[in-house]
């Protein structure tokens, strides 16, 4: 598990931008953290690193925003309004979490994992990446007014 301390939204954005260079088709970036911990800011950085020119906002009410104008397609999903796996499957979002064509960034990924899951624990069956895929789980926590602790762990190939 790797840890990054961000002291500003710009540093969180920069981390996302750097991560974009590693991303490949089939990657899922699962973001876990309370409101205001920087999940959307990190996705904005990923989008910028992929060369996406459009505005990136949290798709809380739309659930999904797709961006196809970068070096890789980016699906940005917000699961905040969904109760769990059955709601996610019912909304037609399962494909983006299990077999994306490009890269998927998912805010409130803990809704897919089930309650109580934390970094360092084994993944539940539906979240296990298939062959050739990578799941980067990211936990963001508030460490002060602008300071954030961002931990991540990669699963899969």
Layout of SSEs?
Layout: E1 2-6, H1 9-20, E2 27-32, H2 39-49, E3 64-67, E4 74-78, H3 85-90, H4 94-98, E5 103-107, H5 110-113, E6 134-142, E7 148-156
Parallel strand pairs: 2-5, 2-6, 4-5
Antiparallel strand pairs: 1-7, 3-4, 6-7
Helix pairs in contact: 1-2
Task: Summarize the structure in words.
This protein has 157 residues and is α/β, with parallel strands linked by helices. The protein has 5 helices and 7 strands, in the order E-H-E-H-E-E-H-H-E-H-E-E. The protein has helices at residues 9-20, 39-49, 85-90, 94-98, 110-113, and strands at residues 2-6, 27-32, 64-67, 74-78, 103-107, 134-142, 148-156. It has a 7-stranded mixed β-sheet. The chain is globular and about 35 Å long.
Notable characteristics:
157 residues, alpha/beta, Rossmann fold, 7-stranded mixed β-sheet, 27% strand, globular
Kindly name the structural category.
Answer: alpha/beta
- Give the mean pLDDT: 93
Count of individual domains: 1
CATH architectural group: 3-Layer(aba) Sandwich
Oligomer: single chain
Shape: globular
Write down the secondary-structure element order: EHEHEEHHEHEE
Classified in CATH, the superfamily is: P-loop containing nucleotide triphosphate hydrolases
Q: What CATH first level would be assigned?
A: Alpha Beta
CATH topology: Rossmann fold
Instruction: Estimate what percentage of residues fall within beta strands.
Output: 25-35%
Radius of gyration: 14 Å
| Uncertain ranges | none
Bin the helical content: 10-25%
Distance between the termini: 16 Å
Major β-sheet, in short? 7 strands, mixed
Q: Numbering strands along the chain, what is their spatial order in the largest sheet?
A: 1-7-6-2-5-4-3
Number of helical elements: 5
